[in-house]
Fold this sequence. Notes:
This protein is an alpha/beta fold. The protein is 42% helix and 20% strand. The longest helix has 20 residues, at 6-25. The protein is globular, with a radius of gyration of 16 Å.
Amino acid sequence: MIHLDAPTSALLDRLERYAADNDAHAAERSQKMLNLERPTAELVYWLVASSKRSRVLEIGTSNGYSAIWLANALKLNSTDKVISIERDPAKAVAARENLKAASLTQRVEVIEGDATAICESLAGPFDCIFFDADRVSAPAQLAVLLPKLTPDALLLADNALSHPGEIAGYIAAVEATGEFDTLTVPVGKGLHIARRRNAP
């Protein structure tokens, strides 16, 4: 178990309860928070913290649950911030409110809009990308981000086991580069991990 400070832990517990209740009653998928399961969030935290990532891009903010985990992992090693992309304005507002409650407004920048277009506009470099939005557009996002990745870049993608058909294009795109060692961990809905093979 990952131990965070008491206020952050309490906030994450509250967000988990809210998401579970909201998603159980939401009429449409777009209304769901679709947050990471706690074991997956802890694994993402551990991967980012232990590999000393400093420039993290998250695609799919939702209400900021995973951004809180990423930012807490990042601040162990770096003064840089997480850039997180969210296309739903209401979710972006909720994310900013939750990040403020977590005292992380200076550590996470939430950008609203189309993720692929935003990825094209970002300068980079990034040493970690977390794909957690719609899986169908992930290959296009990967294509524009590849030139902006560091030699030891770490790629993470959720829902590798829960939505294998939807994520297949992304996984194939990663493998087609010939640059990454990959692994799918059966935690939560399945976390796909890829690390550039030419890492120093």
